[in-house]
Every structure is written in structure tokens, then in C-alpha cells.
Amino acid sequence: MIQAIEAALVDRSGRLARWTGDDAAVVRARPIAVTSIDAIVDGVHFTRSTHSPAHIGHRALATALSDLAAMGADPGEAYISLVCPPTFDDALELVGGMERLAERFATTIAGGDVVRGPTLTLTAAVTGWAEREDELVGRDGARPGDLVGVTGELGGSEAGRELLKRDQREPAALVHRHLCPQPRLAEGRALAAAGATAMIDVSDGLATDARHLAERSGARLEIRLRDLPLAPGLEPLALADGRDPYQLAAIGGDDYELLVTVPPAVRERAERATGATGVPLTWIGEVTAGDDLDLLAADGRTVTGLSGWEH
Amino acid sequence: MIQAIEAALVDRSGRLARWTGDDAAVVRARPIAVTSIDAIVDGVHFTRSTHSPAHIGHRALATALSDLAAMGADPGEAYISLVCPPTFDDALELVGGMERLAERFATTIAGGDVVRGPTLTLTAAVTGWAEREDELVGRDGARPGDLVGVTGELGGSEAGRELLKRDQREPAALVHRHLCPQPRLAEGRALAAAGATAMIDVSDGLATDARHLAERSGARLEIRLRDLPLAPGLEPLALADGRDPYQLAAIGGDDYELLVTVPPAVRERAERATGATGVPLTWIGEVTAGDDLDLLAADGRTVTGLSGWEH
């Protein structure tokens, strides 16, 4: 099986000196390496009944690449560890889903490990590259006066998860959003180059990730709930359930959009940067002195006790 | 818990620009990156009844570092993914075991991920470094006429596993050998510098790994069974069970010694290289034209159908 997997892989970076068949992959490095590792587990991050093997492979790599996006790094190589139950015979389809995503984002799956185990578990370690440290953006640079923006749309993945739970496959766009998250690599690099002061990818939900960014920056994020960009189709679904679509957008996980802060002077440059990729950038708040997150309703009052779908 | 883990980590490389608290770790690279990933799973690679959390952490990092040793790379950074059952509350002890090994081998645990899941699973991706590609050694360079050597001792880990299965803790050296494998990083670098033509770490058992090396090199390895360096204590244990200790040494896994080939002209240089680290290098055979592995008995006949302890 390992040989079949290796045969499905393609070197896209031109930097690989050795890879499959040796004890480790050998890569000609660029000056700055950016590395993240993420695991997804059957029954926790996906279920076999709703996710095809290709979806599972896609998801593992997408979540790891999303961390590189949030740093503004160029994608590079991925290293995959697959824990396979004896009954799982779709490893090649799983790697196929991963390889298609890798192709789209100029990533090379350069190494891996396949072992037996009771629970299907997929771990992706990804390395991206930069020429200089100051090309990259951390979570810690947000300063009072900065604008807070977010790429794309929010709440779609959570809505898709809810639909799948109900055995529904429509609206297809929401289901697709959950099954095939797209890392915002081009947007992350463009925002970093445009002068972003801090970035984080929205994996745990905007409210949670905004708190992480605020904490690391030692600043306060004031976010206007009504300005959150809703995923198309989310609003009618939420209203039919008696839910507030904006609250759902604020707490739904797995959107893998980028939450970014930029000084007002580079606002237009940031808009042009993401505009070039076709993914909108929406201004949803600003950074103030203080700490933590302030989610503001339309009347300016702070919203607490966000409510979503139960899981 | 993640914060407590992060507080236990130490930057040993001086190359880290960003690490804990951001989306990804940022490392100032050396010219050549060498990366491997390995997972270990509860009930497959260890059991909670015989392995303490510290042993589990040690094992995951040791097996990954062993791959860097087999390339002759300098150790660098490790990225850890931990899948924790809700009942597992020893993550800090596990990281402690890993961190102690990391300290011994100048490795920095630079990033990680902790998620919930039903089966305790620990994945380590490690990156080592080199200045030039030709400092590294693959599996593919063995040539007819080369000598075949192996570091340290064989069969000890398998004997330790067998003892633990019987609820025995003596001989302690064999049990320790199983619970605390040591990656041969200094030996790997020294052998690479001395002119080794091919290397592989002995993780699946000498016979299996020798086959991998032979296949990749397009050559034949003739190995004299009676010259295998037995782990002290293995022989009496094997004989008491009516087993051949040399066959056990040839098929026992998880020794993490290095199997190496060197041209005869650099034999003494290779001996001096490992002698400086205190780990013996034993000559066990030679490379000939052909393919596959030939295990030779004392009378020169080929040994087939190796027999070990049943698992």
C-alpha cells in the first residue's frame, strides 16, 4: 500500500533531493521554515458516514495548510501520518483527496507513515517557506486603531455540519463548505505583503479565534456582529430554526477564513490584495486598548452568551 | 493543558523566531532540511499497562529522531500531535518524557496539537538539518565490495517486549532497552562523515531493514548471522526458551541501531567514528552483486524461515 501511495505523489516544489524510499525526506530549504501539525480523528473531526475518504484526506491537509496561510507563508511540503483500522481499505482514495488539494496549492506530499490502529486518524505536518522573517505575520501585532477584517464568508461550515447531521445534502454549497474547506494561502500572503499587523485562521470559530489574537496582541477587538459576512444560505436556515444567523457565524468552527488586523493607512491596499484573489475582505470591527473581545450588536451593546446549533 | 505543555518546552536551537502561541512555528533554516514523521498508537506500539506516559513520549520522539540518525542529519525541531482520550490526564508527564529525550539530543519541541479521540496516539514530525546534500546518506548507495556494519546491539528490545508480556522486569537492561530506545544521532553523523555509502535504522528488524537497503541500492547484502552483536542477556533468555538468539537478533524490531555500508578503504575511519561515541560498530557481512538479503549460518549455508517469539 505504501508503494501505491508513493506512486500517486508528485514533486511540485523542485526542492526535493530525496523523498520516498528513504528514512526521511531531504529538501533544499529557503531561509525561513514555517511548520504546523494537525490531526483529525474519526468520530471527532469527521465521520465515515458523511465524509468520503477523499474528504478526509482533503480536510487533514486543508486544516494544516490554513495555519501556513495565517502566517503569510508560501506552501511547501506536507508529511502525512495515517493510522488505519484493518477494515479501512480506502487509503489510496484518501491520499487522492489530499493530493488534489496539494496540487491546487503547490504543495508536495514529501513523506509519510502508515500504521495500524483501531481509530482512523490522519495527521498532517506542513512546512511553508519565506525569504525573511518580516514577510510573516503572527497573532501578536494588532495595535489600537487597526481595522479588523475577515476574508470570505462565515458560518457555512457549521451549517453544512448541521445539514449532514440531519441527513440533508441541500443547500449543496453549505455542505460543500463543510466537506471541502479551502485554505486561504494566496489571501494570507497578499495580506501579509499589504501590511497586516496580525492574522489567525478561523478554525475554532471567529469569537474564539478573535480572543486568541486579542490575548496575544495585548489589545481589545471590537467586532460588529451585524457586519459579519454570512455564508450564502446560512440566514434562511438559521431563521427557520429560530437561530440568529450572525451569532452562528460568530461561533461556527472550521470556516478557515483569515481574521486580520491592518492599520487604517493600508486599508485600500489590503482590499486590493484580496480582491485580486477573488475572495472578499469584509471590515468587521477595530482594535482598541484593553484586552479580550467585544462583540457588538446593532445598537452598540455587547452581546454575551452566543447561541448556536447544539452538537 | 496546552499552555502547561508549552511552559514545559525549551528552545535549544536558537533558530526559533516564533513558536508556541502562533499558528505555526517559524525557524531560521539551514540549507538542507531533513524531515520524517512517525506515529505510535496505544495497543499497537505500546500498552498503557507496561509503558508509563513518559515512556510513550520518549518512544514517539526516539523513533522519529532515529530516521534523522539514519540520514546523518543534525537534529533540529520536533512537532508533536497528541490524540488524547478523555480519561488520559498524563499529557504533561508524556511531554516530560519527550522533553528529556529532546534535551539529550539537542532537539527543540517547537509546535504541536492536542485533540480528543478514543485512542491515545502520538505523532512526531522531526526536522533535522545539514549544510550540504552530500553530507547525508540514503539507503541507495551500497555497492558490491562494501562492508556491512551495525551499531550497538540487536534483539534487546524484542527480548524486553517478551519479558514485559510475561510481567517480568528482569533482566532490567533488556526491559529498559524496549522502553527507552536511543536514537543513534551522533553515530549516524559520524558514519556519514566517515564515508558511509548507505544507512538505515533498524526499526522493523535487521532482516527486514537490510532487505529495504538492498532493494534501494540494487545490491545484495550477505550477512553472517553468527556475527550479529547480541544484546547482553538475550542469549540465556533465548536458550531457556529453546530459541536461537541470533535469529531473534535478526528479526527483533525496535532496536533503532544503524545498519551501514562502507567501502573497505574507510573501515578504520568508520570504527574510529563510532568508537568516539562509545557505541561499538560490528562488521556483520558484505555487499555483493545481486539483490535481496542472504543470511548466512556458520557453515556458510543460507538461513531461511527465521523463528522468533510469537506475538
Coarse shape of chain A: globular
Structural class of chain A: alpha+beta
Compute the average pLDDT of chain A.
95
Q: In total, how many beta strands of chain A? A: 12
Distance between the termini of chain A: 36 Å
Count, helices of chain A: 10
Radius of gyration of chain A: 20 Å
Largest protein-protein interface: A-B, 61 and 61 residues
Write down the oligomeric state. Answer: homodimer
Beta-strand residue percentage of chain A: 25-35%
Output the helix-strand order of chain A: HEEEHEHEEEHHHEHEHHEHEE
Strand line-up in the sheet with most strands of chain A:
8-10-7-11-9-12
The profile of the biggest β sheet of chain A is: 6 strands, mixed
Low-confidence stretches of chain A: none
